Amino acid sequence: MDLSVMFFGADDAGADGGHAAKYDEILTIARAADALGFTAVWTPERHFQQVGQVFPSPPVLSAALAVATERIAVRAGSVVLPLHHPLRVVEDWSVVDNLSRGRIGISVATGWHSADFVLAPDHYTDRRERAHADIALLRRLWAGEAVEFPDGTGNPVPVRPQPAPFSPRLPLWLTSSGNPATWEAAGRLRTNVLAATIGQTRAELADKIVRYRAAYESAPAQPGTAERGTVTLMAHTYVGVDDTGARQRIDAPLLAYLRSYVGQTAANRAGDGRAATLDDAQLDQLAGFALRRYLSWGSLLGSVDTCRATLDDLAAIGCDEVACFVDFGLDTDEVLAGLHRLATLGKGVDG
């Protein structure tokens, strides 16, 4: 099982040191993950919300991570593709690919929060279709193919992105929030999959992986793709000395994070509106329910033995990599201590 580090964070802008301190923390954790042999470091794209507020631009932060590390892969989890011109995505990530000497990867997301699309309001309604259609375009541009786009006069002009990437192949994932159709689309597109354990049962997740594998195997060969896709699952992670101590440390920060996430979801105008009417007590109740459900299955929260059993279970249903979500409110020293214990469970990592 490959183990990676995932950042997402729900941080208060008024916290000690402000956002500059948060970036220092990200760099510190990434360097430690690099030294400990973790597979990748993932950063998201988030806009205008408390959750993930320090992550508006994955390629900018990934450029810093690329030069701060030596061997760990530097990945976007995710790029909200309908918010960007595909040509600009390829150019930005080609820079990071050169800085990292070929260590990049990106997961394509369709986007979900209506507020994000103030950046591209005309792309919200058909965001899924746009994202899926542009995956083939990303591959063509990454391979150095000249593609026609309208210029400032409205006339088509062939353009080739610069700089040329360091790697001949662009590793691509498709981000899924849980819809089985997205898993099947990833298989047909021959991308990897980035998804979360939270919000679905073991049986539901196993079924989606089976659907993905079948779709991938039956899809026609596509340039720059592997024979087998990678299933990467995001999971909140803190490996403690024992189960009791670990859960005592994570209970309050994880509950606060989940409450913040519920509040963000309530602000999405594309929802059914019911969450927006919840009062503070109801939000607390929902967050508590989510925490209890998450502790029952799908997280890496507990002792080394408990987390090893979870990893074995995820491997048994077809997971290839776990992106360990570590920045949900623990302090840096606790995160680093947990990473050292977690590293003993990783494939090819010395304990």
From TrEMBL:
Stretches that traverse the bilayer: none
Sequence ranges assigned to domain Luciferase-like in this UniProt record: 12-320
Protein name, UniProt field: Siderophore biosynthesis protein
SUPFAM superfamilies registered for this protein in UniProt: Bacterial luciferase-like (SSF51679)
Gene source species: Actinocatenispora rupis
Xref: Gene3D superfamilies: Luciferase-like domain
Source organism, top-level taxon: Bacteria
GO cellular component: cytosol
GO molecular function, one term: oxidoreductase activity, acting on paired donors, with incorporation or reduction of molecular oxygen
